[in-house]
Amino acid sequence: MSVTAPPDQLGGPTVDPVVVDSVQGARGRAVKSFLEDIWRDKAATIGLLFLLILVFTAVFAPLIAPYDPAAQSLADRLMPPSWMDGGSTSHLLGTDNLGRDVLSRLIYGGRVSLLVGSAVVAIAGTAGVLAGLFAGYRGGRTDTTIMRIVDTQVAFPGLLLALVILAVVGPSVSTVILVLSLNGWLVYARVTRGAVLSVKQRGYVDAAEMVGAKSTRVVRRHIFPGITAPLITLAVLEFARIILAEAALSFLGLGIQPPQNSWGLDVAIGREYLFNAPWLVIFPGIAISLTVLSANMVASWLRVRTNPLAREKRFAQDTMKHDLGSDGILGSGDAFTDDMYAEETEGAATL
Amino acid sequence: MGKFILQRVAQGVIVVIGVVLVVFVVTRLVGDPVSLMLPLEATPEERAAFEATLGLDQPLLVQLGDFAAGAVRLDFGDSLWQGRAAFEIIAEALPKTFILVLAALSVAVVVAIPVGIYASLKPGSWIDRTLVGGSLLGLSIPQFWLGLMLILFFGVKLGWFPTSGYGSWKHIVLPAVTLALPAIGRLVMMVRSTMIDELHAPYVETSQAKGMPRWRTVFMHAFRNASIPVATLVGWEFIRAMAGYAVVVETVFAWPGIGFMSIQAINQQDLILLQAIVFVVAIIVVAINIGMDFLYMGIDPRIKVNS
After folding, report:
1. Across residues B147-167, what is the average pLDDT?
2. For residue B109, what are the contacts with CB-CB under 8 A and spacing of at least 6?
3. Would the N or C end of chain A have less CB density within 10 A of its end CB?
4. CA distance B45 to chain A (A)
5. Which residue of B23, B156, B236 is in closest CB contact with A346?
6. Are residues B112 and B16 in the same domain?
7. Which pLDDT tens digit goes with each residue over B248-258?
8. What CA dihedral angle connects B150, B152, B158 and B161, to 10 degrees?
């Protein structure tokens, strides 16, 4: 640690420079190893960059978008993209049936996708993880009750019920978030419970309990950190799934309603003009596909990073053979067994 | 064994009751079906008369009882939209959805299993990476958009297939491919992943060591063991399609199946037809779930009922 610690810029009480340095050093190393690791997976790097750009354009949409997404100009209606005959550079991706700028609508539409995606991940994730922690840590009757509810709801025809609820309650951003959350917590509960059950058997958890730590502390300090890796992967996967679901609901007319705009809704509007103005359908669809693909690529990298078994699968050459196989070093009692990951996709509710 | 069957059936009944309860609570308590179904200018007398004919003036429990009593006789009342028995409409639409889903799943299985096995033979190679990337792309494309793109290209530009509707074998190609693509993506990943596990198992080395041809090891031994998780996923895809994806794909292609009917029922504010469809779909989903359990016990003797 030859680097001299920065002087205390905040002017607060002086802190031991060595401590500051080592904390920052550890954090710096973690960030560096994260960046190095994702750089090796080019697809995930591109995916992450795309998502970051998307967040940026969504946040600063009013500054970036060339037009107001709702501004109509009937003189300029159904103008093709700039590189096609009759297109103009004033509307790079053309205009829709009311003369609204397609590019501006794409930029604003990203807001809804990101909002719905992250809100549902936050709500359903919190509810599901809490339920899973309860079920897994308490065990016994709590476990049976919670898991029975999960098993019952998993067997529901999810999308169909979502459609009924939206049709009755009235579609809007908040009802879409609500309906998708009601549908989305199950998979978190299952994965969390499975992970808790395997972490619970570890020696350090026993030790903490024997020392007399309260159960909330055991869960927070000893169990939860051990199960975050699969949960983060799951959250990214779910984010991708939710964006697709929101787009599908909006396409069916039961999601985001005009005058708000969303990519799925824009495809539904453009569908009327599919044959003479296909760009109205093509561009929002590409936006959805790229966003979901990016999230999926990041998720598959995360899975490999946090799951040694998947890492082996990815890079396995025939020489490595079975010494890392499912019954090898990484016995099936491990928190990161493949079954748990399989359950993520399998148990994902039907939407 | 008998106890296990009873348990599963009882669980299935609970699921169906749960679905019906949700539909009833949402439509009767949260929403107001009469104002949804009648025009705004309806007089209070008209509203009351309408309520009475549908039994909506009864307490919720009575309505539930009436629905259950009708449902066991497959009598769900008359569709408000078409003016004929809701069950008749469902009975016409359901086979069309089954045909579509079965066609899509056949395509998915026929494509995904060889592709997944091929990818698993050399994990990490460029072919494997390409196939995995392609699968990820397949399950990232929104189905409704894929359908529209296929219509645009194969329906309009090339004119090979009709753009929508139901009729000749040509009508089913585009919707089936649309329904199949994300399933292909998921199946390829699954087949590849389980096959890599199996191909690295000791028994594969043994069979190779005693001189068994590679193809025989791959197909007769490894794939046989890998087929159980794969069968599970196929079952899940069936459920996914029946309980959701079919709605989207059928709407895009105006395929007159049960998913298209449910959207029509919503647009026509036909509560009777809608609740009948949800009930029937719930029963189908439960039945497939139970069927899958029995199938495993048939395929894999290691699965014990009592554990």
Report:
1. 87
2. B187, B234
3. N
4. 23
5. B236
6. no
7. 999 999 999 99
8. 60
Q: What is the pLDDT of residues B168-213, one digit of tens each?
A: 888 899 999 999 999 999 999 888 988 888 888 888 888 888 888 8
Q: Counting one residue from A and one from B, how many pairs have CB atoms under 8 Å apart?
A: 173
Residue B196 shares a structural domain with residue B284:
yes
Q: How many CB atoms lie within 10 A of CB A328?
A: 12
**Between B36, B229, B244, which is nearest A160 by CB?**
B244
The answer, for A161 touching chain B at a CB cutoff of 8 Å, is: yes
Q: Label residue A285 by pLDDT band (50, 70, 90).
A: very high
Q: Which amino acid is at A7?
A: P
Q: Tell me, what CATH number does B252's domain have?
A: 1.10.3720.10
Question: Residue B97 falls within a domain, yes or no?
Answer: yes
Same domain, B33 and B127: no
Q: Which two tokens stand for residue A127?
A: 């509810």
Please answer yes or no on whether A164 and B23 come within 8 Å at the CB atom.
yes
pTM of the model: 0.84
Amino acid, res. A248: A
**Per-residue model confidence as pLDDT tens digits over A225-272:** 888 888 998 999 999 999 999 999 999 999 999 888 899 999 999 998
Domain count, chain B: 2
Over residues A5-47, the pLDDT tens digits come to 444 444 444 445 555 555 667 777 778 887 888 888 888 899 9
The half-sphere exposure of B4 on its side-chain side, counting CA atoms within 13 A, is 11
Instruction: Name the token pair of A344.
Output: 């993520």
Helix axes B223-240 and A338-347, enclosed angle (nearest 10): 30
The answer on B195 and B289 residing in a single domain is: yes
Radius of gyration of chain A from Cα atoms? Answer: 24
Q: Is B258 in the same domain as B223?
A: yes
Pair B269, B174 in one domain = yes
The verdict on residue B80 lying in a domain is: no
Query: Same structural domain for residues B67 and B96?
Result: no
Residues of B in contact with A288 (CB under 8 A): 142, 145
CB atoms A325 and B197 under 8 Å: yes
Which among B72, B101, B122 is the end of a domain? Answer: B72
Q: ipTM value of the model? A: 0.89
Q: How far is CA A64 from the centre of its chain?
A: 24
CB A111 within 8 A of CB A58: yes
Please tell me whether residues B179 and B240 are part of one structural domain.
Answer: yes
Q: Which domain holds residue B24?
A: 2-72
In a domain, B306, yes or no: no
Q: Partners of B85 in the beta sheet?
A: B78
